[in-house]
Design brief:
Chain A is mostly helical and 118 residues long. Helices cover 69% and strands 0% of the residues of chain A. Chain B has 362 residues and is mainly alpha-helical. The chains are: A mainly alpha (118), B mainly alpha (362).
Chain lengths: 118, 362
């Protein structure tokens, strides 16, 4: 059973390995002559104005929270979906109630304007 | 032929590992060649759509162009920006590439041609493709550049928004097929009506949502605000050059092919022939099932992938870039409600045994 996952592990290692080898090849084969103009952050030809790690919009944070909620919901839906034809209408309505609660929260977010990007 | 290797004690001890690594390379090397020629195809197709010729000088009809590009990039300097977190800066493209290729471990190419038949295949695919967003975020953060950070924030918010729509679409497929094993999902679409038995028909809204979300997930036009050349120059990879850039580029195209392959498996019947069980084509008495029986399943699978790749290129040549607020509105306010409603519809269809997909006859 678990031996099925061995190719998956090797695939991950080989995939990462090929990426690493390519980048190492780039470092080995390419010239390397840094100077301060070349390595300064790109800002359309200007000197950098301020710190690059600047403040960003709080809405990105809201989207991240919403994502966690809904992704968890999907994680709950996955096993339910696989056995749906065995658990019948009882299981179906149980999940509809669960989904309904989350949809109420989603509608609240929508009405509060958390999804607006003008 | 390789007896002198296979007879050694060292080989016998690690046989499983060595053979698996060879199989992995048998999948991965053609994948990278396919990626290279997708870039060639993109330039040719978009060229034709814009009444240009596209690459034509390197090799016959420009067929060696991808290799020329690759060798050029190998010999370009890799610039490490002065304020960058150097380790993260170099690791980010590797993470993106690894997550883009790792999902291929569970893709079934034919009835028996699959590297690992894991039962949680679809869950694995969802998990491993989600890791790609880390590469984008880390790249944007480690670059120490405003444009890179802006691109990374945009890209991350967009990817997670469409990931939800995509996840819900997958739930619909799971309900229909009753299995997370990709091979069994394909077999569940086998019937006597050929391509009408595939899930694109009963799950049509989910199919459209899945593929459009896939385009958004891979940051391709018309959802490419993460790069947005005209606004934030190149987004998260503005500071990348040489091979580090090439790895991001490879990952983007590998992801495109992956999304196309998954869409073929879940909605277009994977390796199944479109004439499966069609013995009386259009009531004309033509036995298409027997006529096309010689075509290997893999050929159908690759043909289906090609259709989706072509759609990707067609979209890029046709649609102007969406505004960011339009993208978020489409993801949150259109796709997620559609998928939730259709999950309920699929639930009723599965429990009510709607023919021909879930009836006793199917």
């Amino acid at each position: 059973m678990l031996s099925n996952y061995l190719p998956v592990l090797i695939f991950l290692i080989v995939g990462g390995g090929i990426g690493a080898v390519m980048i190492i090849a780039g470092f080995v084969l390419a010239p390397h002559k840094p100077d301060s103009e070349k390595t300064s952050p790109y800002e359309c030809g200007f000197e950098a104005f301020e710190d690059s790690r600047m403040k960003f919009d709080v809405r990105y944070y809201l989207v991240a929270i919403l994502f966690i909620l809904f992704d968890l919901e999907i994680a709950f839906l996955f096993p339910w979906a696989v056995v749906l034809d065995k658990i019948g209408y009882f299981g179906f309505w149980a999940m509809v109630i669960f989904l309904g609660i989350l949809v109420v929260g989603f509608i609240y977010e929508w009405k509060k304007g958390a999804l607006e990007w003008e | 032929m390789f007896d002198f290797i296979t007879e050694t004690a060292l080989f016998k001890e690690y046989e499983v590992y060595i053979m698996t690594t060879i199989y992995v390379l048998v999948i991965m090397i053609p994948l990278f060649v396919a990626v290279a020629y997708t870039t060639w195809l993109e330039r040719k197709v978009i060229g034709a759509m814009q009444v240009r010729i596209g690459p034509r000088n390197v090799g016959f009809r420009g067929l060696l162009q991808p290799w020329a590009d690759m060798f050029k990039l190998i010999f370009k300097e890799i610039i490490l920006p002065s304020g960058a977190n150097k380790v993260l800066f170099v690791i980010a493209p590797v993470i993106t590439l690894a997550s883009a290729v790792a999902a291929w471990a569970v893709i079934p190419f034919d009835a028996e041609k699959v590297l690992s038949k894991v039962n949680a295949g679809l869950l694995y695919v969802l998990a491993v493709t989600s890791v790609g967003v880390y590469g984008v975020i880390i790249a944007g953060w480690a670059s120490n550049s405003k444009y890179a950070l802006l691109g990374a924030m945009r890209s991350a918010a967009q990817i997670v928004a469409y990931e939800i729509a995509m996840g819900f679409a997958l739930v619909g497929v799971l309900m229909a097929a009753g299995s997370m094993n990709l091979g069994e999902i394909v077999l569940a679409q086998k019937g006597t009506n050929g391509l009408l038995d595939w899930y694109w028909l009963p799950l049509l809204p989910l199919f459209l949502v899945y593929f459009i979300s896939g385009v958004a997930e891979t940051n391709r036009a018309p959802f490419d605000v993460a790069e947005g050349e005209s606004e934030i120059v190149a987004g998260f990879h503005v500071e990348y050059s040489g091979m580090t850039f090439a790895v991001f580029f490879l990952a983007e195209y590998a992801n495109m092919i992956l999304i196309s392959a998954l869409a073929s498996i879940m909605f277009l019947g994977g390796w199944l022939s479109p004439f499966e069980g069609v013995h009386n084509f259009l009531w004309l008495g033509i036995d298409m099932h027997a006529l096309t029986a010689w075509v290997p399943g893999m050929a159908w699978f690759f043909a289906k992938i090609f259709i989706f790749i072509f759609l990707y290129l067609w979209f890029r040549a046709t649609f102007p870039r969406y505004r960011y607020d339009q993208i978020m509105r489409l993801g949150w306010k259109v796709f997620i409600p559609i998928t939730i409603v259709w999950i309920l519809v699929v639930g009723f269809m599965v429990l009510g045994e709607v023919s021909p997909w879930w009836g006793a006859t199917a």
